[in-house]
Amino acid sequence: MRVCVVGAGPCGLTTIKQLRDEGHEVVCYDKYSGLGGIWLRDGDDGTKTKAFDHLKLTISMRLMAFSDAPYKGGRKFYSRQEYFDYLTEYANRYKLTGCIQSNTEVTDVKKTTQGYLVTSVCRGVESREKFDAVAMCSGPFKTPHRQFPELAGFTGEVVHSAEYRNAERFRGKRVLIVGLAESGADIVREISETAAKTTLSIRSYTFLLARIVDDHRSTDSRTVRAHHHEMYDRATKRPVPYKTFWGTSRLAKTAFGAVSVGLGLISSIGGIVQAIRERIKPRTYADVNLLGEPMEPYKMDVGCEEEKANWDLIKKWNEKSHPEGSWSPRGIFCKNVSFIPSIVKGKVNVNDTGMARSEGATVHFKDGASAEYDAVVLCTGYERDLKLGDLSVADGNVRNLYRHFLHPEHDGRVAFIGFLRPFSGGIPICAEMQARYFARVLSGKLQPPKNLAEVIAEEKSWEEYWTELSPRHTESHPSQVLYLDALAREIGCLLPLRKLFLNPKLFIQIWFGSFNPSAYRIVGPHSFPKAALADLYAEPVEDRGNMCYHMSVLRMMPTSVHPKHMMP
């Protein structure tokens, strides 16, 4: 088919690649001067949504890389420029740039009896082209959320995080930062280093996870399938709507459980033996940590040292993130604690009651406090902008699509790819798997469920239950592992049970090892088994997640929390 891809950021690039793997003809339009989306910095971009100067990924490259271009350097956290370079290399490696028409904005999409008529504008010249299908990969970062009645009377500067590049413009100023997301955590830290006064205004507490645990390991290395299945399947009475390794067969599930118990004990014993070895002969590590900072003093995030005061504040913050008696992760995470030392040291004052009103330079808060500010920085996210011509999503809620991407009203010809954000995990690999699915639907090799509306409703209900503490974030998903495994099963790239049963080493790595997208390239369409297995086994044995959950992560959580409910 002839397919239009809107957007050449990470999600657009992998969509081009997966569509071409299935033999489709692809034309990609992007409004910027080159590929990369928000990662591209092309000259005077101060009013565009772009990644800021000193941004560091909150997910390691193991999970931010695509499975058809896995990162070979462990679980390092890339900088903005490093990640852009990775995307450029990916596009060059698979010769994707020839499909991209830069400086071209799609302004309209009309559904016709033959397909879709796409209107685009390039340097003032409008053109129209016909396509058989459309993939919307423009991402959720299009329309910044700026409308706050509480700031109607404020006369100072108001800046959205979309326009933030660095803290220099706030040097010596009194700054109020509204909202806290992962980028907001970095912005709070950076501004507090240059501003005369910094206040963080929040209305609720987001659960915090450090990027590094145990001094030298990434927190996302503790994401394991065994835990996700235990937490969302075995430990609750709400049935998981996704089919994974054993499908709906109780016999297969029982056999899988029996094998996992035996191999889990072996895995745990191996971890204990390795821990003893390290006590006898400690390992030596690089001079810099995964964030590129000096290894000593040990840190858990950018500039955030392993100190009791920092740990205590994270613990108190997380206790406030969930109502009493609800300790399972049912709200989005902030995988960034770099701002914590700024609060501990008194550089940042936190007001958790929210803004009430503003008059001139004065902002009043709901607890009666007030203060004068020169600037307000909004870390308040983006509007749900999911309409383009005849393409739209009901209520602007991607949960009304199949698996957040396939439109139920267009016979498999329209996909919104990259609009799913897992609690802990990377968006790019989710987009890649969505694109693989979409490409095979267009090839006629895969059929979505016939009772699509019923399946969408069932999965939507399950997601809303597990994300009830973040009701506005309808793009969020509690488990990247369950989601991707379910997609992989339909695509045909999920490892079959017989292969796992006959290979205990592979079983242990897949079930108890750190989650790695290379698992989806061992079998199925467009696989490369030898290279995928090598990448899967590349992480050292002692870095595998296992039944003995790591205490360094638990130190961030209340003492009443059961490990199985709070691990990432």
TrEMBL record:
Transmembrane segments: none annotated. InterPro entries: FAD/NAD-bd_sf, Flavin_mOase, Flavin_mOase-like, FMO-like. GO terms for molecular function: flavin adenine dinucleotide binding; N,N-dimethylaniline monooxygenase activity; NADP binding. Keywords: FAD, Flavoprotein, Monooxygenase, NADP, Oxidoreductase. Belongs to the FMO family. Pfam families: FMO-like. It comes from the Bacteria. Gene3D superfamilies: FAD/NAD(P)-binding domain (3.50.50.60). This is Flavin-binding monooxygenase-like protein.
